[in-house]
UniProtKB/TrEMBL annotation:
Belongs to the ABC transporter superfamily. Keywords: ATP-binding, Nucleotide-binding, Transport. Residues 316-427 are annotated as: Disordered. SMART domains: AAA. This is ATP-binding cassette domain-containing protein.
């Protein structure tokens, strides 16, 4: 069993973990959840003696990790799958760990088979993919056949088959009476793997309960009810009956009703009493992800914002502009709907009417209106985008009319005792 009592860890002025207390019991997969920066990895490091707590303590089987006799035989951990010497093969890495802990060499080949790396055991680990590195880290955690296991993001980089394998492995280890403590950001996977949850936010304990209790306590269950679409009067009759019974009804976009405050049997009885036929009556329970987001929404330190430059990107060719129609497009200011605007012409009612728009491009083959200069030669993309096939490069265009030869002007001679200056054009 893992036990944390009043764990607090400060790094200067920042408090990573504050007064954290919990227990991880054997025989159950316990999930460790929290937003980025909430202190999950710091807590695991303090449990394993890698970081010393500012106050409080953590024990494994009643002792601090550093006081456990031959700790690798009792505790296995995966905190960083990249903590491997890149020049060593998978077998050499595990063999060195086994020799340090007094583990028989035959155990190395056993765990390589368990994690599926027996065919690449002789390859150097620096050529492993992210998923293969995760498997090697899990093999190192299983090497001593420990009774306590800690995993930090064990499914990171694994394919669907690997994720299913890790899920079944965690459940099997817990069914053998071992203590399994798993940290992960994949809510859907944690809902299928863990039976108990410990949730922290900004270093403090938010929840310590079973998965079912956590979802029930942090979500609002509701019933989804649907009446025949061809009989709207039945929908209105049911809405009135449910409202009189104390239910809260919210229409769904597809025509169904979301009902809260009434259990499903009561909804069925009310519909029967009102002689309303039901096409659907189904319960809805929030997912672990929904419950988790609802609980931790106030403990998130890193939030994304909308991209301010998203509206500045040029729309692909062939797509109509979305949102408010810009000036110069069909339906814009000065252009009635259904009549395309003239590229390069400032619409009526806009200052500078009748003057060409210097920022608009003329349509290919378009005849300039009165008062407009002829279109300039087509220029290439300013960042070097490829031109159409057969078109000359924009910097190779010749002027329409020949220019008179310029009178050469001899540059002034540089003094003999000073070197000729070098500048960018001289290169």
């Amino acid at each position: 069993m893992i036990e944390a009592v009043g764990l607090t860890k400060r790094y200067g002025a920042k408090t990573a973990v504050y007064n954290l207390s919990f227990q991880v019991r054997p025989g159950t997969v316990t999930g460790f959840l929290g937003p980025n920066g909430s202190g999950k990895s710091t807590t695991m490091r303090m449990i394993l003696g890698l970081d010393s707590p500012t106050s409080g303590h953590a024990t494994i089987a009643g002792r601090p990790y550093r006081q456990l006799p031959n700790a690798p035989r009792q505790v296995g951990a995966l905190l960083d799958a990249k903590a491997v010497h890149g020049g060593r093969s998978a077998r050499q890495h595990l063999l060195s760990l086994a020799q340090l802990s007094g583990i028989p060499a035959r155990r190395v080949d056993e765990v390589l088979g368990v994690v599926g790396l027996q065919d690449v055991a002789g390859r150097r680990s620096n050529g492993f993919s992210l998923g293969m590195g995760q498997r090697l880290g899990i093999a190192a955690a299983l090497l001593g056949d420990p009774q306590v296991l800690l995993f930090d993001e064990p499914v990171n980089g694994l394919d669907p088959e690997g994720i299913l394998w890790v899920r079944n492995l965690m459940k099997q280890l817990a069914s053998e009476g071992r203590t399994v403590f798993v940290s992960s950001h994949l809510m859907s996977e944690m809902a299928l793997t863990a039976e108990h949850l410990i949730v922290i936010g900004r270093g403090q304990l938010l929840a310590n309960m079973s998965v079912k209790e956590f979802i029930s306590a942090n979500s609002a269950d509701f019933a989804r009810v649907r009446t025949p679409d061809t009989e709207p009067e039945q929908r209105e009759k049911l809405t009135a009956a449910l409202g009189e019974a104390g239910g809260q009804i919210t229409p769904e976009p597809d025509g169904a009703l979301r009902v809260t405050g009434l259990p499903l049997p009561r909804i069925s009885d009310l519909a029967h009493a009102a002689e309303v036929r039901l096409w659907e009556l189904s319960p809805h329970q929030a997912s672990l992800e929904e419950a988790y987001m609802r609980m931790t929404q106030g403990a998130v330190d890193y939030r994304s914002t909308a991209d301010a430059r998203a509206g500045l990107q040029e729309a692909p060719a062939g797509y109509a502009p979305q949102g408010p129609v810009p000036q110069g497009y069909a339906g814009g200011p000065g252009h009635p709907a259904g009549q395309p605007g003239v590229p390069g012409q400032v619409p009526a009612g806009v200052p500078g009417q009748g003057q060409p728009n210097p920022y608009a491009q003329q349509a290919p083959g378009a005849v300039p209106g009165p008062g407009h200069p002829p279109p300039a030669p087509a220029q290439g993309h300013p960042y070097g985008a490829p031109e159409s096939y057969g078109a000359p490069h924009p910097y190779g265009h010749q002027p329409a009319a020949p220019m008179p030869p310029a009178t050469p002007v001899a540059p002034p001679a540089a003094p003999a005792d000073q070197p000729t200056p070098h500048h960018e054009d001289a290169r």
